[in-house]
Each structure stands twice: as structure tokens, then as C-alpha cells.
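new request in #modeling-help
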Amino acid sequence: MTDEATAFVPGHLTGFFSAHPDADPSAAGSRGAGVTLSHGVDVRVERGGHGGHPALVTLNGDPVAIDAVAGVRDALDATDAAVTAETPLPLGAGFGVSGALALGAAYGINAAYERRRGENDLVSIAHCAEVEAGTGLGDVVAQARGGLPIRLDPGDPDHGRLDGIPAAPRVEYVTFGSVSTEAVLSGDTTRLTAAGERALADLRGEPTPSRLVELSRRFAREADLLTDRVADAIGSVREGGDDATMAMLGDTVFGFGTALSDAGYDPEACGVHPAGATLRARDGGSRHTRAGDDE
Amino acid sequence: MTDEATAFVPGHLTGFFSAHPDADPSAAGSRGAGVTLSHGVDVRVERGGHGGHPALVTLNGDPVAIDAVAGVRDALDATDAAVTAETPLPLGAGFGVSGALALGAAYGINAAYERRRGENDLVSIAHCAEVEAGTGLGDVVAQARGGLPIRLDPGDPDHGRLDGIPAAPRVEYVTFGSVSTEAVLSGDTTRLTAAGERALADLRGEPTPSRLVELSRRFAREADLLTDRVADAIGSVREGGDDATMAMLGDTVFGFGTALSDAGYDPEACGVHPAGATLRARDGGSRHTRAGDDE
């Protein structure tokens, strides 16, 4: 019997979004669009052994508190699940790391504890935990899909339809620091949401990578979210005739192809991740040997 | 400017299904569940040069007529698109090769002809073309999703919700020959559909790989679709304590792990494909350099 499992969850850069609060967390969320990354988070779950705070996980060797993980442990009745994660992505810089930890914990617990839930259930559990923690609105559903996700409706898989941009560009990004998602989402989001709705309507008319960057840049300016360092970087990239935009929400600039390296930056580079969150094959592969209660 | 593009579309083994015809092909389709495969179809589209029958494609070097591809060429106004495909999978044996050709042609034409459609649009076009050709009901939407897809509703992405089994088992399969999808779908599907609905309800209660195989095997027997050779193979596998079932619709047996090799067969083996149809990165990657009409 397997008592551990590892899931990979892609990072997610949000380009633009609108906020849609709701008393029901499964219906709350955001609309918008972004980029899932081949850089992501490996989340390993071991059955038993965790006796600390329900939000605690080990991230790149250090203990950190991720409130959304506490919600997932609770929803799947696995408060003793040990969660250990490794990632090259920074926390709090707009890469959806907290969403990835929540979603990876849900997939890992489901396998290690044989909870026999379907993927939509697991995504819903992680989405609701992230919404209730106030750390994100749309990362989890995007990270469950992969590609270049367009979130047409807010909410979990029972509420929110998704679409995608059919392309797989190279991605470059540079992180200067953190922006507090909680602080932005708990403030007045009226202007932000109006700008996000405009960007979504325009992207649906022309769902291409270059249009995503252009509309995201317009959104960042209209929502007044641009940091000085990101604004400088975007200016440098555009002087060279290319384009870049800001990750929502982090002090992070990203673009496609060689947008940032051509402008003299030394960016991290990765690909678009074609798939959503997945169990590592070793765990899934071992599952077939159980089962088979006869008809 | 890119005038060619290549898409990869995973193969799809349907385990069980129910048929839901509708005068509107976007609402028509099937419910059911199956397995997408890392063995799939590479579909290359070149702009211009095709002057033959609108259904003709080159498959593993040979000209074949795939009616669904004619529908895709027509819907995307690209009747001169040359479509060349390579696959290790047999045609007509239950692997969704015709659906893969339709979906890959849609993705490839969209990129090579700069049609700027979103993924849902492309999936809908391929789904409708496949339904109208009578060669499949649910392969296209499953192949656009990847994983172990559960089709909760019939129809294209605007109509049909999907779920998935969170696992990634190794897959083994042996093909003995063809079964005509058109002949089965054009006959009385009442009994088949009742059996498929029962299997779906039961799988939703326990969405695991082993339950998928078990319920698919029950479906094949209840729907009276088992071929002699598949029935023999399933018998051999079950004598050894493992399980296997039939691909819908083909004279093909499949199982997870080492189910078929342990029973003495010499199966093909592959993995579950974690992603749906995707453009090969070269094409997607080149797209960012276009565009950027300024605000």
C-alpha cells in the first residue's frame, strides 16, 4: 500500500484579473488570464507524522505556514499529513506558490490516504481553501488546467468555465520582490475589476500570447498596480520593440520569447506547462495493483 | 511568419460510454470515461498546397480519407491546408485516431493560418466535425483534456463538463483488429446507453483506475460489444488476478500496469498523457514575435 504520494503543480503568472467575492467560496474567485509554467512545485505528502500547526509545510527545507494547506488537510480529514515541497519559484511574488501547495496537498493526500475523490473535487477543495485564506482567487483552477488559461467565470470547477490560448511560447521572468495579495484583495477592487473585465472581453476577441501581454500591461496601468521596478523593466523591453508585463500579484516582470534577455536582464526562463497538476507516475502507477473487487 | 504548425494529440481509449444524439452537433456527444495515451498523433499542417479531396490526409505516408478533417478544413476556411500525420496507433481500432486528426488539424490550421481562435472554439470545431462524420462522439473533448477523462455531459466545451481520475498508471494494450464505430453508433444504442449511464454513476462514486477497468468490463458485457479475442484476453488476465477491458470501439484489449504482459501477451505499453492536445513549442514559441500592435 502506498502511504506517500508526490504531485507536480505548475507555477501560474496571472496577467490580469477581476475579483468576484461570494459568501460561498466555491462560487467566489476571479476572472482573468495568465500563464502556467514548467517551473512549478513538487509537493510530497506522507501519511501520518505531522503534529504541528495545521498550516505548516516544509518548503525548500524551511517550515512555512500556508493557511490554504490547513484548509485542505481539514477538508480531506488528514490533519496528520506531512507536506514537503520543493520549488525554484519564490513565495509571495506572483507565481501562485500558495495555490500550488494547496492543490498539490489535495492530490497528494487523496492518493496517500486513498480518499478516492475525483479531480474536480480536489480542485474545489484547494480553491475553497485558498479563497478562505485570502491568498488567491484564481490560481488553483488555472494550475489544475495548465497551458495559457483564460478564466471565463469565477469559482471552482462546478462554477467556472475555462478556455485557453492555443500556443506554447518560451517564458522569461525576473522577480524584484513581493507584493501582498491579501492587502490588494482586501482593499477596494472596483477599479481593478473594471479594468480586468475590459481586458478579458478584449482577449476573447483575439486569444494570442502577444495580446495577453499587451492587455495585461494595460490592466496593470489602469488598476494602478505597477511597481516602479516592473514599470522600468517594461519600459526597457518596449524600447527594444518587444513587450512585457507584471505578474499579479508580485514585484515580478514577465514576457515571452527573449523579451527580457534582449533588454539586458538576466531572467529565469521556462516553458508553458501543457498540463495541469498531476500525480507523479510512480504513485499513480502503483494504484492499479490494488482494487479489483469483483463484480 | 509561420506557415506551418505541428500539434500533438494523445490517443484515447474509451472504457464505456452512453450515446446522446442531438440535431445540434455541438450538443451531441457521449458521456463516459477513458484513458488518454502518451502514444498519440503528430499532426502537421502546411498552409497551401492541398488540392485534393477535402477529407484527404497523409497518415504514416499513405493517403487516407478522414471525413472529420474535411469538416475542420471547411470550418476554419482552410480547404488548401496540407495535413500530414504520424502515429504508432492503428486506425479504426478504438484509439481515437480520427478524433486526433480532426483536433490536430484544428490546432495546426489555427496556428498556420493565424485564425486567432481560442482552444474551446478549436475543440468545438473538431468535435462537431467528428460527430457529423459519424466517426466518434466523445474522443475529441477527451483528447483536448488529457489524463483519465470522465465525460459528465455530452457535447463540446460549451455544453459538456468534464472531470478526471487523479492517477497516472502505466497502460498496456493489444490490438487484434477493427470494429466499425459508424456501424455501432448508427444502430440501436438503447441498451448500450443504459449500461453506460450505470457505469458512469458508479465510477463517480469511486473514481479510481481499477474501478474504471472493472466498470468498463461490465459495460462491454452488458452492451454485448465484446469480441471473442478480447473476451479471451480478459479471461487470461483475470485468471492471473489482474483486470483488463475492451477499447470502445475496436478489437483492442487494454489494462493498467503489467496486466497483459503478466498474462503472456506482448503488449504495446505507454503512459497516461497528462495534457490534452498541444501545439509543438516551436510554433507557439515563434508566435510571440509577431503581434504587439500598440495600444
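bot summary: Residues 207 and 255 of chain A are 16 Å apart (CA to CA).
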